[in-house]
Amino acid sequence: MTSNTSGISRRTLLKGLAASAAVPMAGCSPNPASPPLAAPYVPGKPLPWINWGKNHSCYPSQRLAPRNEQQLLQGLTQAKGTVRAVGSSHAFSALVPTDDTLLTTDYLSGLISHDPATLQAEVWGGTRLHSLGPLLESVGLATQNLPDMDYPSLAGAIATSTHGTGKHFGSLSTQVAGLTLATVDGQLLDVSAKQHPQIFNAARTHLGALGVVSRVRLQCQSAYRLTEVSQVEPLELMLSELEQRMAQNRHFEIFALPYSPLGISVATNEAKAADVNQGEEDPGALNQLRQVFESVSWLPGVGESLYAWLLDKAFGGNPPVVRTGPSYRVLAHARTTRFCEMEYSVPVEAGPECLRKVLDTIVRRKLPACFPIEYRHVKSDDIMLSMYQGRDSAVLSIHQFGDLDYRPFFAEIEPIFHQYEGRPHWGKIHTLQAPQLAALYPKHWQDFLAIRESLDPNGKLLNTHLKQVLGV
């Protein structure tokens, strides 16, 4: 297979949008309000912690970086006040902030062991996903699926059921065959479907509320390669063929473009033996996209329709962009443009209607949105607080550039998800509190709270955000 790099892929499009974020245009003008500010350095106060999106921060009085499980247990038992674990700081919700003790698992990283017979691998919980792929490849293994960005730690990704896309694939948490949980009373609990199965079922989406995950045993498969094909297409065509495309491709997703009838289809399948590893993209497409944005920035009233027309002329006829390589390189994509994100999962059958309503609301309300809306499918599971518990789900991800205030935009869109029994991603921005969340998890909500109470009766792991969303 040969790669045509004259087209525009989702990576190219996202980078182009980032380059144009400061250009006023219809539907994407900077909001006059300032975005939430991260904590500055203040003389006399501890160094601030700031998340990647720069929408949350804190001044932890103590920072711990244990180098082994014994130090991890010591830190958990001896620390005063609230203890929160932190991975790569890519959560957009306030799961991490505490002014007491911040504990990083960065030193608990790497491959511990693997079993070629069962295709399982035990990995330290602090291992970043971008390191996980090469580590597993070195022993002939690979994850069955991955999120589309590989910055988080493994334990952090499991904490919030971080996911990729694919009709037959659940979140990363569904690939966990067992894990070790360090508890606040000084225990190392090995949990699996056979050992402490209830705790295991809770710990696969643990929110950092049960303990600190030190080790993870993953069910893998033999290492494999993938080929990704990205193409600009009419959005309605993709939605009309959605079920077929989800069934025919190992992974499939859509990026819908606000104020345009176009979207980007991304179909990913196992590579053929003859496919050559490749994937370089033409940076010239960035300039084309920026020119489209700038060309309509000064035209009031007709900017939206002209923007859609120009976007179609610039990119609608481009051939596909093809990337081939090891699975972990193809599934993950660079996220170098800072943004804030809200994500909801709705029943899979409601996905297309929900997406259409979001796009229609953006146009009718003239909301400041030009970041593509990501649309994916995730297979159901029975993990206690997984967003996909009990139902196959369509996942819609809404973004806003980091230098703009996301709050007015998200406030207009979030109620749409509530109409479809949407469950918010635990690591993304949302406004739901415990009563609304409990109603979305009728099967296991009380079970999770009971397990949390048994493992941390004094709430040592609970910060303000967790107390609010769990109702503790």
TrEMBL record:
Signal peptide: none annotated. Keywords: FAD, Flavoprotein, Oxidoreductase. Residues 56-223 form the FAD-binding PCMH-type domain. The keyword Flavoprotein applies. InterPro entries: ALO_C, FAD-bd_PCMH, FAD-bd_PCMH-like_sf, FAD-bd_PCMH_sub1, FAD-bd_PCMH_sub2, FAD_lactone_oxidase-like, Oxid_FAD_bind_N, TAT_signal. PANTHER family: D-ARABINONO-1,4-LACTONE OXIDASE, L-GULONOLACTONE OXIDASE. This is FAD-binding protein.
